[in-house]
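Hypothesis: this fold can be encoded by more than one sequence.
Test: take the structure tokens below, design a sequence, compare later.
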């Protein structure tokens, strides 16, 4: 691409960024970042949307998003010969055997070679996703599942593995939608049904938070709150800690701000509550580190339960 072609592309990108800065889906901080990006492009390439000469020099038949979508539709993937498809299948089978032997990185290498030969086969991407999730490469798993679904929108296993990756990343609402779609495509698959239930449970647990003034949410990170409140040792310690004059002062300040005695409304209460929580955690750890470790272990156990699935044991295609 020559210099004029590059500037033409930059002009189109600037138009896209300007359109995105008016989007209601982006927060003010994201829009500010886009504005900075636009300024950098204008400075680097000497292109400006406000320059009438530039608009005349670089006309666009349609917005960049539409041009991009049309280009994707017209993009021709090179045809794969029968011999190449056979080679790709051998590499896929090799990857499957390596996956069964828990040689996950080697399996990824084999699947990647198969994809290089035949990039149209959704199974290769989905199988590589299975190897990625075994290694904890959750974002790579997501990327492969997205590509598999693009190639085959009715590929239930790709939705299922995508759901597993979202679960491991703590994205339970996205996981729920993936498992719902997987179950819709494969209604008899019990693992999809179980994982859908786990995702719904995790969403309900995330919703069980306290809302502080100003809209801040104070959750418990997967800890079983009723079990904690029924622990007499912890409650006795909490009573002792909250008898501390410094802690009482923090709580008094917090409560006065909740009632509107401070301005701006609610701003001090969140800070005080966070400080009180930090103070409580420090004193709890100092007085009973074993209990703190027990709570941490409980949280880790719940995360592992939410991430586990029978689909991890599925045989690749």
């Amino acid at each position: 691409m020559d210099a004029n072609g590059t500037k033409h592309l930059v002009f189109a990108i600037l138009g896209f960024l300007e359109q995105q800065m008016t989007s209601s889906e982006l927060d003010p901080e994201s829009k500010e970042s886009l504005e900075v990006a636009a300024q950098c492009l204008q400075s680097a390439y000497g292109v400006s949307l406000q320059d009438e000469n530039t608009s005349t020099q670089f006309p666009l038949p349609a917005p960049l998003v539409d041009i991009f979508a049309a280009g994707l539709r017209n993009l021709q993937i090179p045809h794969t010969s029968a011999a190449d498809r056979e080679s790709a299948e051998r590499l896929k089978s090799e990857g499957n055997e390596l996956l069964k032997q828990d040689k996950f990185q080697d399996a990824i290498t084999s699947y990647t070679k198969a994809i290089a030969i035949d990039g149209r086969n959704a199974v290769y991407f989905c199988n590589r996703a299975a190897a990625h999730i075994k290694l904890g490469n959750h974002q790579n798993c997501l990327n492969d599942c997205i590509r598999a679904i693009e190639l085959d929108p009715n590929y239930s296993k790709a939705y299922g593995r995508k759901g597993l990756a979202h679960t491991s990343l703590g994205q339970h609402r996205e996981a729920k939608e993936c498992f719902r779609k997987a179950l819709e495509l494969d209604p008899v698959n019990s693992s999809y049904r179980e994982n859908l239930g786990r995702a719904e449970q995790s969403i309900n647990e995330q919703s069980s938070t306290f809302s502080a003034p100003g809209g801040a949410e104070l959750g418990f990170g997967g800890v079983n709150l009723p079990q904690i409140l029924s622990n007499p040792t912890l409650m006795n310690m909490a009573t002792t800690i909250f008898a501390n004059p410094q802690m009482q002062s923090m709580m008094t300040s917090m409560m006065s701000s909740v009632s509107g005695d401070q301005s701006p409304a609610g701003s001090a209460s969140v800070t005080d509550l966070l400080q009180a929580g930090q103070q409580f955690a420090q004193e709890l750890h100092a007085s009973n580190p074993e209990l703190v470790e027990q709570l941490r272990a409980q949280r880790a156990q719940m995360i592992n339960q939410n991430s586990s699935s029978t689909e991890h044991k599925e045989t690749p295609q």
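The beta strands are 210-211, 217-218. The chain is about 70% helix and 0% strand.
Hypothesis status: open.
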